[in-house]
Write a structure and sequence with these properties.
Blueprint lengths: L13 E5 L4 H10 L6 E6 L2 H10 L6 E5 L5 H8 L4 E4 L6 H6 L1 H22 L3 E7 L8 H18 L7 E7 L1 E2 L6 H10 L4 E3 L5 E5 L1 H14 L5 E4 L3 E3 H12 L12 E3 L21 E3 L3 E4 L5 H4 L12 E2 L15 H10 L2 H5 L2
Helix pairs in contact: 1-8, 3-5, 5-6, 7-9, 9-11
């Protein structure tokens, strides 16, 4: 995907990032600061994280920090006022937390998204991009269901916006290397402590992507979207057991251990977990386009009727999707060497040394 710093449409614009102090949100902010964006509003609940991010970004004069919750429509309305683009990354994203607090997950992930839709329509926002998850595909967890519902709300908002011109779209992520609370962060902490590494089930497979790829996807997709789509990066998959072993081999010596000293323990699947993840469902394939880098799920199932000729497709380099499956156990899995290369190339190992 094109580097976001070369994309011209952010020049002179004001951008709001909900969840702007989180892993994805703060990465979007950092990337936007490389562009000619006029202003960036960072909206989140955690005062201390805002303080830390402000210091890390050298108090750039284009930044404004808003303490607030997406559940608070009035506060959100003030933050949205005058913004051209909104990146909605605020969410409860941890599967277990959502399982034990489903009412809170609904309030944040569903009601919060509806609030953002309403104030964006009222405020004349040009484009809204929602950060979703592959757990929204055939969901088995509260978190996955809430993300799927938020995707549906975004598509519905686009369909029912009336005379308003706001474009609503979504990007669906896999597991993001190094994101807060991710399995890579857990494994790194366990390795630093000398183990054991706790593995839920050795048979589990997952799709994986870097923070940089997640940001590329959102910043590019928000500008080519026509509305109601879900953009999904074509990403590699791996076996979680091999991820744990690769991280152990790379990080154990950093903390003064031999990899053989650190045990990998299987503790059993947790509530709401799936053995394998899916990027797109079989039903979604009937309304799916693809490029070399992404799948584009259209809101209307009559994709072949709408676009009978591939030359008419309104996305650069797109074609009718030919994929038969996008499930993490039905694609070629990364080898341990490839997993190690990914951890090094994304600088995750370097960050984990600290």
């Amino acid at each position: 995907m094109a580097a976001a710093s070369t994309l011209p449409n952010f020049a002179g614009k004001t951008v709001l990032v909900t969840g702007g102090t989180g892993t994805i949100g703060s990465a979007i902010v950092r990337r936007l600061l490389r562009s000619e964006v006029a202003g960036i509003r960072i909206y989140s609940r955690d005062e201390h994280k805002q303080f830390e991010l402000e210091r890390a970004l050298a108090e750039d004069e284009r930044l404004r920090f808003f303490i607030g919750d997406t559940r608070d429509r009035d506060r959100l309305r003030r933050a949205v006022e005058g913004a051209s683009f909104v990146f909605h990354a605020a969410a409860m994203k941890h599967v277990l937390s959502c399982e034990y607090n489903p009412f809170e997950a609904v309030q944040t992930n569903i009601v919060g998204t509806q609030n953002l839709i309403d104030v964006s329509l009222d405020g004349g926002v040009e484009r809204v991009m929602f950060a979703s998850s592959d757990k929204a595909v055939n969901p088995t967890s509260t978190m996955g269901v809430s993300k799927l519902m938020a995707e549906k709300l975004m598509a519905a908002a686009n369909a029912h916006r009336g005379a308003r011109s706001t474009v609503f779209t979504s990007a669906r992520f896999g597991n993001v290397v190094g994101s807060r609370g991710s399995v890579t962060t857990l494994f790194a902490e366990q390795i630093a402590a000398g183990g054991p590494i706790t593995l839920t089930d050795s048979r589990m497979t997952r799709f994986i992507m870097s923070v940089e790829h997640a940001v590329d996807l959102m910043l590019t997709a928000v500008q080519i979207a026509h509305g109601g789509e879900v953009f999904v990066l074509k990403m590699p998959a791996l076996r979680i057991e091999e991820l744990a072993e690769s991280m152990r081999d790379l990080l154990a010596p950093v903390h003064g251990y031999s990899p053989d000293e650190i045990e990998v323990q299987e503790i059993g699947a947790k509530r709401g977990e799936k053995f394998h993840e899916e990027l797109i469902s079989e039903e979604e394939l009937t309304r799916c386009l693809e490029t070399d880098e992404v799948y584009i799920l259209l809101p209307d199932p009559r994709v072949l009727e709408i676009y009978p000729h591939e030359t008419e497709l309104p996305y650069p380099g797109a074609r009718i999707a030919s994929a038969e499956s996008a499930r993490s156990d039905r694609v070629e899995l990364m080898t341990p060497a490839q997993i190690g290369d990914l951890l090094v190339e994304t600088h995750y190992v370097e960050r984990a040394r600290v």
